[in-house]
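From the methods appendix. Each design record in this collection lists the tokenized structure first, followed by the designed amino acid sequence. Records were kept in a plain field format so they could be parsed without special tools. The example shown here is representative of the layout used throughout.

RECORD:
FOLD TOKENS (175 positions):
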């Protein structure tokens, strides 16, 4: 059994808090692109990156709790949709990335972010239909949800692999 040191716990909490703060900040309208029916946010890049790097619980804190807080502070109507959708997205990306990592690390992460993107698009489409009591609002926003999910998936993969954030993370964390 692996012993978790105080340094490991501190590092995990610090990284989780840093990614969660980035998620909350990117939930602000000033860091978004206005689109019909709302805004296009860049938080999926942070959620996917954190999920690739961190364990599933920490990924949930970044994705679910971070998105919940971002909505709570800036636009509370969908905050519970964000908690569930981005939380589930982050956990699934983390689980797939870590379970399949032994053979092909970047491929495993690619599969994870692809599945996570589907979860995000479906979760927000259904969640918005419920929160706003009209499927028309969700359908109008659907192309932008797909764009946001795709952007977040692609840029997280670029950060983690071609730009070697995963490699740096492994060196710093000691994996």
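DESIGN:
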């Amino acid at each position: 059994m692996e012993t978790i040191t105080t340094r490991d716990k501190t590092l995990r909490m610090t990284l989780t808090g840093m990614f969660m703060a980035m998620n909350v900040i990117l939930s602000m309208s000033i860091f978004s692109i206005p689109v019909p029916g709302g805004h296009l946010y860049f938080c999926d890049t942070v959620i996917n990156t954190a999920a690739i790097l961190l364990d599933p619980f920490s990924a949930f804190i970044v994705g679910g709790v971070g998105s919940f807080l971002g909505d709570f502070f800036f636009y509370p109507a969908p905050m519970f949709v964000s908690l569930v959708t981005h939380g589930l997205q982050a956990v699934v990306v983390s689980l797939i990335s870590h379970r399949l990592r032994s053979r092909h690390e970047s491929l495993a992460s690619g599969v994870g972010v692809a599945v996570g993107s589907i979860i995000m698009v479906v979760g927000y489409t259904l969640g918005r239909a419920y929160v706003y009591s009209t499927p028309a609002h969700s359908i109008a926003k659907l192309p932008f949800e797909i764009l946001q999910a795709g952007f977040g998936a692609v840029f997280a993969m670029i950060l983690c692999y071609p730009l070697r954030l995963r490699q740096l993370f492994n060196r710093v964390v000691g994996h």
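APPENDIX NOTE: The chain has seven helices and two strands.
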